[in-house]
């Protein structure tokens, strides 16, 4: 997949992937919301059932009423699984630095078919000059090439950062970019 996206004379200088642990840790805050969501909906389901298992009569409205909160509980389980989805996404995302540009093969599990799809994003030397980076004490972090400001469906302003995110050797890759 990577070779097909490169020009015939283009030379690859660096190939990398985001660290799965970094992306998973960044998703833990959302997972905390999933824990709270599940506890509240589980409590609601049990409250409808009078905190006891129903005795199955020919027809009991409590069981029908408990289906609503139970479906919300299942949605909470999906929220809990978000760090695992991000880990899967990081394992399928590839970063390439060539002698001409930086290329991101960004896997998104919500795009395309059930198994997701890969979007290829390319950044030439002019975009790479305005980059900035964030580095943690272990040398891991992000190199951001571009910030795109968009509006979401509610009209709120959202800033999306494009770049090599969650890589292990930020300073080494930054030096390679500087040489372009």
Strand content: 25-35%
End-to-end gap: 23 Å
Mean pLDDT: 85
Strands of the biggest beta sheet: in what spatial order?
1-2-3-4
Sum up the overall morphology in one term: elongated
Order of helices and strands: HEHHHHEEEHEEEH
Largest sheet: 4 strands, antiparallel
Q: Low-confidence parts lasting 5 or more residues at pLDDT below 50? A: none
CA gyration radius, whole angstroms? 22 Å
Quaternary state reads single chain
Q: Please, how many helices?
A: 7
Helical fraction: 40-55%
Class derived from helix and strand content: alpha+beta
E-strand count: 7
Structure description:
With 180 residues, the chain is of the alpha+beta class. Helices cover 42% and strands 31% of the residues. It contains seven helices and seven strands.
List the helices and strands and how they pair.
Blueprint: H1 2-5, E1 12-16, H2 20-26, H3 28-48, H4 61-80, H5 82-92, E2 94-98, E3 102-113, E4 116-123, H6 125-128, E5 132-135, E6 141-151, E7 157-167, H7 170-178
Antiparallel strand pairs: 1-2, 2-3, 3-4, 5-6, 6-7
Helix pairs in contact: 2-5, 3-4
């Amino acid at each position: 997949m990577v070779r097909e996206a490169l020009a015939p004379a283009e030379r690859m200088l660096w190939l990398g992937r985001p660290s799965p642990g970094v992306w998973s840790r960044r998703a833990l805050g959302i997972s905390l919301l999933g824990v709270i969501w599940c506890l509240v909906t589980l409590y609601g389901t049990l409250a409808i059932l009078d905190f006891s298992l129903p005795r199955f009569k020919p027809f009991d409205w409590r069981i029908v009423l408990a289906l609503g909160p139970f479906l919300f509980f299942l949605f909470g389980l999906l929220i809990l699984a978000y760090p695992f989805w991000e880990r899967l996404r990081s394992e399928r995302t590839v970063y390439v630095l060539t002698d001409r540009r930086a290329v991101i093969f960004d896997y998104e599990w919500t795009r395309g078919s059930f198994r997701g799809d890969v979007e290829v994003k390319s950044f030439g030397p002019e975009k790479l000059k305005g980059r900035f980076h964030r580095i943690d004490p272990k040398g891991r972090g992000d190199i951001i090439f571009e910030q795109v400001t968009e509006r979401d469906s509610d009209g709120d302003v959202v800033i999306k950062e494009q770049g090599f995110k969650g890589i292990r050797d930020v300073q080494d890759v930054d030096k390679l970019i500087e040489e372009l």
